[in-house]
Write a structure and sequence with these properties.
By secondary structure, the protein is α/β, with parallel strands linked by helices. It contains eight helices and seven strands; from the N terminus they run βαβαβααβαβαβαβα. The protein has a single domain, classed as 3-Layer(aba) Sandwich (Rossmann fold). Helix 1 runs parallel beside helix 2 and helix 4 packs across helix 5. It is globular, with a radius of gyration of 17 Å. The two termini are 28 Å apart.
């Protein structure tokens, strides 16, 4: 089995990863590709509450799954430590993603949505989303999409995140601005020009602010226009 695997991570929490993941999924699906989305670890929700994978399914209409859930709204390692839970290792998460994807009609693209930024720990051993990406290379080609903020402060943290991705031996395929205002100010307009220049990574999308509140039909129809 060979998969195309795209890790969707961010420079921080709250930058718009889930909506960006849904937009990527909808755009891939609109071109005729079979797409699936995995959330390896979800925190901050009770068992009955819909999580990020449910939101992606609502917006994009593709198959989604969540592998682990922890109730406290903390980084996965911290939430697991407080609850006494033992999280799967990055290698085990990779195996579960590959096994879930190995169906009679396997997806052509699997998007893996992280939690927070690139250095957030997903397991008890300190494994991060980047470690998960390295483990996933056993199952297919892996690249990384980085979701960032539009405004002041984004240049430095984006450069640091790209540096970490490259240091892990993974390929940053593109940057997406997770919430692009209808009337961007000078800093936001400048950042859109400077992000690819300073990182060497193409800006592949700008998700309009509030896109997650659009009706699903409109979201799916418009998503491809938000991405390069």
């Amino acid at each position: 089995m060979s998969l195309r695997l795209r890790l969707v991570t961010g420079t921080d929490t709250g930058v718009g990863k889930t909506v960006a993941t849904a937009a990527l999924a909808a755009a891939h699906h609109a071109t005729g590709r079979r797409v699936a989305v995995v959330k390896p670890v979800q925190t901050g929700l009770s068992p009955e509450e819909p999580g990020d994978s449910a939101e992606v399914h609502r917006l994009a209409g593709v198959d989604t799954t969540e592998l682990v859930r922890l109730p406290e709204p903390l980084a996965p390692e911290s939430a697991a430590f407080r609850s006494g839970a033992v999280l799967p290792t990055a290698a085990e998460l990779a195996r579960r993603i590959a096994t879930w994807s190995d169906s009679t009609t396997p997806p052509e693209v699997v998007l893996v949505e992280g939690a927070g930024g690139v250095a957030v720990r997903l397991d008890n051993a300190g494994g991060t989303l980047l470690d998960l990406g390295i483990a996933l290379e056993s199952y297919g080609a892996v690249d990384v999409v980085l979701v960032v903020r539009a405004g002041l402060g984004t240049l430095s943290v984006t450069e640091l995140s790209v540096e970490a991705i490259r240091r892990a031996g993974l390929e940053p395929a593109g940057i997406i601005i997770g919430s692009w205002p209808a009337d961007p100010d000078l800093a936001e307009r400048s950042n859109a020009e400077d992000l690819p220049r300073l990182t060497g990574v193409p800006l592949i999308g700008r998700i309009p602010a509030g896109a997650g509140a659009l009706p699903t039909g409109r979201f799916r129809a418009d998503a491809i226009s938000w991405l390069a």
